[in-house]
Specification:
six-stranded mixed beta sheet; globular; 244 residues; alpha/beta; 10 strands
């Protein structure tokens, strides 16, 4: 579905991505793993058109996205739930969701159907439909961020750090919901520092280090990889035997 080839990204004179290439197959969850500042969020921003100057190739189902503005990329079927949530705090939950459906124009039936789907995924949002977004808890704001992205009925959903700053119980709920979204046929590109949880639900993964792709493979293999376990799963390598 998505093919990224040899992309380079710089902010001014500072280059942050070097020759990054990967693909997302239709119907899968693909996870990008890496430390803060490794380039994962920049990669998602490049895919969704939020970085105007990007060298290389980004194609969705064979169509180039590089020359398209963000709203046209959304219309092609790519939605982005960004790190930090960026909800509209002065609007209600329901108004935030309707903003996410802007590509549907005046198709009220489609908007209402999408709205019902989001509220079925996140019943807590339905309970707070008339509440201002800025008064929600962190977990509720993350639900709203994901729900808003789903309002455009994407083929490909970009999720950037959906569990960041959440209590363990809410992290479990968010990952359960990601699984439900995937089960409904949405392909997911996931950036997540909780590598264990992300790799546990993904089919494949790529590992970033300082703007470069350094490792890739099936998620189950990455979970067992000694380098990934030491760097991202908080596990230490077994101590070497010492003479008795």
């Amino acid at each position: 579905m998505l093919e990224v080839k040899n992309i380079d990204v710089a902010y001014g004179d500072v280059q942050v991505l070097w020759d990054v290439s990967f693909e997302v197959k239709e119907g899968e969850i693909l996870v990008l793993v890496g430390a803060n500042g490794a380039g994962k969020s920049t990669t998602l921003r490049a895919v969704s058109g939020l970085i105007p100057k990007c060298q290389g190739s980004i194609r969705l189902a064979g169509e180039s996205l590089l020359e398209l503005p963000p709203h046209r990329i959304v219309a092609r079927g790519v939605s982005h739930a960004p790190e930090g949530r960026h909800i509209l705090s002065a609007l209600t939950v329901d108004e935030n969701l309707r903003m996410g459906a802007f590509t549907l124009g005046r198709d009220r039936a489609a908007i209402e159907e999408n709205r019902r789907r989001v509220y079925s995924l996140f019943p807590r949002l339905a309970e707070r439909a008339r509440q201002l977004g800025g008064t929600l808890s962190g977990g509720e704001q993350q639900m709203l961020c994901i729900g808003r992205a789903l309002m455009a009925r994407p083929r490909l959903l970009l999720l950037d750090e959906p569990s960041l700053g959440l209590a363990p119980q809410l992290v479990k709920l968010i990952f359960t919901t990601i699984g439900e979204i995937h089960a409904h046929g949405v392909t997911i590109l996931l950036v997540e520092q909780n590598a264990r949880a992300a790799l546990s639900i993904a089919q494949r993964g790529y590992v970033f280090e300082t703007g470069r792709m350094v490792l890739s493979g099936p998620a189950s293999e990455l979970l067992r990889d000694e380098r990934v376990r030491r760097a991202y799963l908080g596990e230490r390598a077994p101590a070497a035997d010492t003479p008795g």
